[in-house]
Amino acid sequence: MNNVGLLYVGAVLLVNGLMLLGRVPARSAAALNLFVGGLQCVTPTVLIIQAHGDSEAILGASGLFLFGFTYLYVGIANLAGLEPEGIGWFSLFVAGAAIVYAGLAFWRQHDPVFGVIWLSWALLWGLFFLVLGLGREELTRFTGWTTVLLSQPTCTLPAFLALTGGYRSTTSAALIAAAAAVLLVALAAVLGFRGQPRSVHDRAAAAA
Fold it and tell me: What CA–CA distance (Å, rounded) separates 44 from 147?
C-alpha cells in the first residue's frame, strides 16, 4: 500500500514543480494536492491500525504523514490564498525528519537505495523551506526544476519497481541512485539559474 501512495506522490511533485516554474496555476494544482494528501494520510492510518502494535510497521508508516500533511497544506493554501510561510517552515521540519528516516533506512532497515531517496527528499523540502519560508525567490526556478527532475526517479520509478517485484536495494544500486540524483540536481541548477536577470544574482550575492 505504501508503494501505491508513492506512485501518486510522483505525480503531485511533478505538478508542484511545474507550478513553481509558472507552468501550472496554483489553484489548478490544488485539487491533485488534496487528493494525494488525503491518500497519504489515509494510507498510513490504515497501515498503523493493521500493524497491531508492530513497532517496525508503525515506524515504516509514520513517514507518510509528512507528505500527506504537506500536500493537504499546499492544496488548502492554494485554494484559500494563504501566505506560504507556514508551508515553508513545516517543510523545514519535514527536511529534518527525512534525514532521520534516511539514517534509519541505511542502518536499521538495510535499504540503502531508499536512504538515498530520503536524502533527496530532505534536499527538496529544504529548498521548499528556503523559497517559501525565507522568501528566497532567486531559488524558485532551481527548486522547481529540482522537483520536476527528482519526482519520477525518487517516487514513480521505485514505486513501479516495488509493485512489480523488481525493486532491489544494494550498495551498488544506492551508489548509482546517488550519482543520478547529483547529476539531476546539477542539471536543475543549470536550467534554474540560466538566463536569470542579473539583478536576481546581485540580490542573492548581497544576501549571502
Answer: 23
Q: Which residues contact 192 (CB under 8 A, 6 or more apart)?
A: 139, 141, 142, 143, 144, 145, 146
Write the single-letter amino acid at 13. Answer: L
Q: At what angle do helices 112-128 and 171-193 cross, to 10 degrees?
A: 20
pLDDT 10s digits, 79-107: 999 999 999 999 999 999 999 999 999 99
The pLDDT confidence band at residue 121, using thresholds 50, 70 and 90, is very high
d(CA 78, CA 107): 38
For residues 70 and 36, is the Cβ–Cβ distance under 8 A? no
Question: What cell numbers appear for 81 in the block?
Answer: 490564498
pLDDT of residue 197: 58
The hierarchical CATH code for the domain 2-195 is 1.25.40.600
Query: Cα–Cα distance between 94 and 26 in angstroms, integer?
Result: 21
Give the mean pLDDT of 168-181: 96
